[in-house]
TrEMBL record:
Residues 3-68 form the MIP18 family-like domain. Binds and transfers iron-sulfur (Fe-S) clusters to target apoproteins. Can hydrolyze ATP. The lineage of its organism: Bacteria, Pseudomonadati, Bacteroidota, Cytophagia, Cytophagales. Homodimer. Coiled coil: none annotated. Keywords: ATP-binding, Hydrolase, Iron, Iron-sulfur, Metal-binding, Nucleotide-binding. GO terms for molecular function: 4 iron, 4 sulfur cluster binding; ATP binding; ATP hydrolysis activity; ATP-dependent FeS chaperone activity; metal ion binding. In the N-terminal section; belongs to the MIP18 family. In the C-terminal section; belongs to the Mrp/NBP35 ATP-binding proteins family. One of its GO terms (biological process) is iron-sulfur cluster assembly. This is Iron-sulfur cluster carrier protein. It comes from Thermoflexibacter ruber. Pfam families: FeS_assembly_P, ParA. It comes from the Bacteria. ATP binds at residues 103-110.
């Protein structure tokens, strides 16, 4: 068994999303062989890759079939999150910037942002959140850090903000700059300039994913964001309710306008159905059924998944500990699946654009 044999076998294994083989994608590294034992590393495009186990299985199968049926194969799965943002002057160490938007308020955009951030971080990704929701900045509450304030450092004669860090997530919120009751009086230009400061005068360090919790609807903030920094894409959060869907459609259309032109990474359907804690098998479609899925299909964008309406989601949000911290909770699994799908779609998009 030689290194060349192993590479030849792995060159027959396709990365299912990117539709190219692992060797030409440069995903196989550190091959070591001792007798019948072969070890190597597969470098995935995201630690949240939902196809991890499938890829592992296909590698083992190829080596057993093409090299040695008795080989003992040990694969170390790591990830290097892909980016299209190399050498950009703003946030050069932030690989992917994802705007989380909704048409209507109260559909759970902030809840989804907080839980997606934690789910991505659970896979080993480095994650940050900018809470740009001037009408109701809720990250300080959802992460139980209301009294925290961003730090300040001096870097090459320039004062930079240092994000608050909670549960391994770096966070900046409009809510840290003004007492909660005052936040509503923030006017567009003030909020836009705070957002600019969060982006250009902050030491975020290295991040795989930066999530930006936008205000609901369409506003100056949305424009500031896309004009200040190249956003990788936007996620639209909606409930299946007709009025929410109509607004979500408007939000989606805004990102697609010529002067904004931000790709839609997918739709998340929140409060998809109510399920009581004591009867988890029962699903009540109180806001209607499949609205988010239909919206995604109609606009030919990915559907990232559905999150049920569950009392514990609201309670954990109010307590300042996103529900995904309760690991075997079924809702945590639903969020994890949405996060994996989002990371997968980002990796696919990065690969497609890189090829153009
Ligand atoms: N799936 C869910 N199950 C139960 N409660 C939820 C769910 N999603 C959100 N909530 C609750 O609904 C309320 C509104 O959610 P959230 O603040 O996340 O919405 P939002 O869209 O960010 O609102 P806005 O943009 O108006 O600030 C919160 O109390 C939250 O805990």
């Amino acid at each position: 068994m030689t290194k060349e044999d192993i590479l030849k076998a792995l060159a027959t294994v396709e990365e299912p999303d990117l539709k190219k083989d692992l060797v030409s994608l440069n995903m196989v590294q550190n091959i070591g062989i001792q007798g019948k034992v072969v070890r190597f590393t597969i470098v995935l495009t995201t630690p949240a890759c939902p196809l991890k186990e499938l890829i592992r299985h296909n590698c083992e199968k190829a080596i057993h079939k093409l090299v040695d049926a008795e080989a003992q194969v040990f694969i170390d799965m790591t990830a290097s999150v892909t980016t299209l943002r190399d050498s950009t002057p703003l946030l050069p160490k932030v690989r992917n910037i994802v705007a989380i938007a909704s048409g209507k308020g109260g559909v759970g955009k902030s809840t989804v942002t907080a839980n997606l951030a934690m789910s991505l971080a659970n896979t080993g990704a480095k994650v940050g959140i900018i809470d740009a929701d001037i009408f109701g900045p809720s990250m300080p509450t959802m992460f139980n850090c209301e009294s925290a304030r961003p730090g300040l450092i001096n870097q090459n004669g320039k004062q930079l903000l240092l994000p608050v860090e909670q549960y391994g997530i770096k966070i900046l919120s409009i809510g840290f700059l003004a007492p909660p009751d005052d936040a509503v009086v923030w006017r567009g230009p003030m909020a836009s300039s705070a957002l600019r400061q969060f982006i250009s005068d902050t030491d975020w360090g290295e991040l795989d994913y930066m999530l930006i919790d936008l205000p609901p609807g369409t506003s100056d903030i949305h424009l500031t964001l896309v004009q200040t920094v190249p956003v990788t894409g936007a996620v639209i959060v909606t409930t299946p309710q007709k009025v929410a869907l109509a607004d979500a459609q408007k939000g989606l259309a805004m990102f697609r306008q010529k002067q904004i032109n931000v790709p839609i990474l997918g739709v998340v359907e929140n409060m998809a159905y109510f399920t009581p804690a004591e009867l988890p098998e029962n699903k009540y479609y109180i806001f209607g059924k499949d609205g988010g899925k239909i919206l995604a299909n109609r606009n030919q964008v990915p559907f990232l998944g559905e999150i049920p309406l569950v009392q514990s989601i609201r309670e954990s949000g109010d307590k300042g500990k996103p529900i995904v911290t309760q690991q075997d909770n079924p809702v945590a699994i639903a969020f994890q699946e949405v996060a994996e799908k989002l990371a997968q779609n980002i990796a696919i998009r990065n690969a497609q654009v890189a090829l153009v």
